[in-house]
Known about the structure:
The protein is α/β, with parallel strands linked by helices and 265 residues long. It has one domain (3-126, 180-249): Alpha/Beta hydrolase fold, catalytic domain (Rossmann fold), CATH 3.40.50. Helix content is 37%, strand content 25%. The chain is built from 8 helices and 14 strands. Strands 1-2-4-3-5-6-10-12 form an 8-stranded mixed β-sheet, sandwiched between helices. Strands 7-8 form a two-stranded antiparallel ribbon. It has a two-stranded parallel sheet with strand order 9-11.
Amino acid sequence: MTTFITTPQGRHIAYHRTPGKEPGVVFLGGFRSDMTGTKAQALQSWAEATGRSFLRFDYSGHGASHGAFVDGSIGDWRDDAAAVIEVLTEGPQILVGSSMGGWISLLLARDMGHRVAGFVGIAAAPDFTERMWEAEFTLAERTTLLEEGVLMRPSEYSDEPYPITLRLIEDGRQNLVLPGGLHLPFPVRLLQGSADVDVPPSVAISLFHHISSPDLRLTLVKDADHRFSSPACLAMITEAVEDILRSREALPVEDASGLKLSNIC
């Protein structure tokens, strides 16, 4: 059953929580997507079958959550994610971020790293607003944004165009993660389709080189597109989560004296 949480900013966020063992898994959806998508449902089925705690939710202005999409920004959606994790989960969580959800996950890892046990990026799209501004928008589109504050763009996933606001671009610029190094002290799995035209493989390769992690792997899947929702791709997502759980057991840990102890044979 979908229920709601009110964030410190006063936004009402819809979520669905499956109880189970920790560390749990949190799914962070993409731009204009919601928690009822194929990837989120596949992860919930996996969590129920394995007894693992699982949380999925909608950012404000998305899905069942309150608010207007055009009023939101990367910083707002990061705050939404932080609120649901802080209140609705216990201990470190494995973050599974799809597209924009990958960017949100990296912001959470930077700002509340003690609550992150691992990261699975599915066509992760860090800093995509800056990429749109620099490489995708025409001069006419930039002018429209600057003068009118909003630009309507056609979508391959809907008959209706979707809005890009100037606030989204400007706020995104305040939340970039790629200009500096990304130190992620936990296992990381990046999954990327070779046929993804929304987030091309070059983005995943760049992210791979920006991240420092004790266990980092990038998987490039031939002919997979941005949806990454074929049965084989869905199986890869749950396998990546299971791989992170195994990796956590093998990575060095510290005892009370501060000595590092390794579980790796």
